[in-house]
Amino acid sequence: MTPTITAFEASPDGGHGLARDMPVRWALEEVGQPYDVRLVSFAAMKEPAHLRLHPFGQIPTYEEGGLALFESGAIVFHLAAHHGGLFPDDADGRARAIMWMFAALNTVEPPVVEHDMAPFLDAGKPWYDERLSMLEDRVRVRLGELSARLGAADWLDGEFSAGDLLMVSVLRRLAGSGLVEEYPNLAAYVARGEARPAFQRAFAAQLAVFNASSGG
Asked: Can you tell me whether residue 197 is helix, strand or coil?
């Protein structure tokens, strides 16, 4: 059965592949699973039909047969667990890949998202520059730690895994800030992720939706 995911009818990410359906699309492409997309408006996301799928009124959701999931990390985990290519074959390697999935979403992403949202929430306020500097320093702490762990390796733990997919997705949110570029091995790491054919297919699919919605 072909799964269906939801995505923004008109994404606010400016066509940069940052909306939350992107890691799900990427995972689907990595495992070779065809999928359908149902586009939803911001208004429809708050309607009862969508809230039955996602109680917080967000995207993405994932439906396959009688299974309905929300949260991009949970969906990526489900795909990795039921298809080859995103988890190592050995139990210890799988456990470490799951560890990196949690690290990406629970340890690295929170300061990244706070930094990402600051210009929208705080720009123009008298303390904005001081706050932004503080947020940048918080992000640098995590990037420095991640850079030290990655070292000269291509991926976080041997071969590419769901942990890398989510970590690269998180780091991409810093595009344009110059922060990732302060750590050359992390910049190269993100570039390797973006160069994967599965990423390119997922990005093109999401960009096509943005272009259609914006008349591009």
From this structure: helix
Helical segments of the chain, H only: 21-31, 48-51, 72-82, 91-102, 109-122, 128-150, 162-171, 184-195, 197-214
- Please state, in angstroms and rounded to a whole number, the distance separating the CA atoms of residues 112 and 43: 27
Task: Give tens-digit pLDDT for 158-211.
Answer: 999 999 999 999 999 999 899 999 999 999 999 999 999 999 999 999 999 988
Same domain, 192 and 120: yes
Q: Domain containing 169: what range?
A: 91-196
Number of domains in the chain: 2
Are 47 and 66 in a shared domain?
yes
Residue 127 and residue 99 in one domain: yes
Pick from 13, 59, 19: nearest CA to 202: 19
Distance, in Å, from the CA atom of 10 to the CA atom of 168, rounded to the nearest integer, reads: 24
Residue 57 to residue 22: CA distance in whole angstroms:
17
| Pairwise CA distance, residues 163 & 157, whole Å | 9
Q: Are 59 and 21 in contact (CB under 8 A)?
A: yes
CA distance 16 to 60: 17
Identify the CATH number of the domain in which residue 66 sits.
3.40.30.10
CATH number at residue 107: 1.20.1050.10
Q: Using the predicted structure, report yes or no on whether residue 119 has a pLDDT greater than 80.
A: no
